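Lab notebook, bench 4. Continuing the backlog of folding jobs that were queued last week. Each job is logged with the same field layout so the records can be merged later without manual cleanup. Today's entry covers ROK family protein, a 319-residue chain. Filled in by technician R.K.

JOB TYPE: sequence-to-structure
TARGET: ROK family protein
LENGTH: 319
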Amino acid sequence: MHNDLVAALDIGGTKIAGALVDDSGKILVRAQRPTPAREDGETVMRAVASVLGELCGSPRWLDVTAVGIGSAGPVDASAGTVSPVNVPGWRGFPLVDRVRTVTGGLPVELVGDGVAMTAAEHWQGAARGYDNALCMVVSTGVGGGLVLGGRLHPGPTGNAGHIGHISVDLDGDLCPCGARGCVERIASGPNIARRALEDGWRPGEDGDSTAAAVAAAAAAGDPVAVASFERAAQALAAGIAATATLVEIRIAVIGGGVAGAGEVLFAPLRRALHDYARLSFVRDLAVAPALTGTDAGLLGAAAAVSPGPRGQAAATAAG
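JOB STATUS: finished
OUTPUT FIELD FOLLOWS
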């Protein structure tokens, strides 16, 4: 029986998920709330506290030794603060201190959601066995993390690999981060749906206008839906190729809700990557869907503080 558990939080623009995770990576208890992303910072924090409160109500909480947080970014791991682009009420929000208070003083480690996903994928997912990899979360936003030389490379503040805010369209739309033409502004789920709607795509009778509905329409051959995903794939390919050219990654792993579109996304992505990754040392770059699924953020957050193989794999992310 595993005695020591880690409480993990996965905080994004859509949901706040929590879990109790053992050393083998098994999730024993779950809790989740919608993210009140357009509300003030204290309202968002109350949702976090509600998730933690549900976890605290489990009899297994007595075995929890630490809390790991994977949050939408930017984050500042050194200061323990978060400023998610998609949660405007949190700017320099002292999340680590607040979570420490809610949990009675437990040790808390913070990483960006892209780094968390990377920790999970490098430990037991599609990036396993690769010494140099880029792992991406393509969902409400677009985040990422790097493995270089066999180790996670989060950077001084925990944001290295944040590919979503590489500009791939110099005269493109203004991004909430303040720049123009960011990968996220083109390839995130809401922006895929926005572009499709602007270009004339219309939802079905159920009224679903999400990226998942656009993906279903694209799979059925709707040309506007197909074009929106092709544009997203082009933006992702440009960002991936730029990253590969800089640091010679050998694989790009893509997870998050948009990756659930399958070949609707991956087929045009591979074609576009062939066009952008032209230099000899990046031509053989592999692209693969993530394997850890919707639990990647939770597993990666736990990896930042957990002993054993996960903790060793994510030691740099926590540091």
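OBSERVATION: DSSP finds eleven helices and twelve strands in the chain.
SIGNED: R.K.
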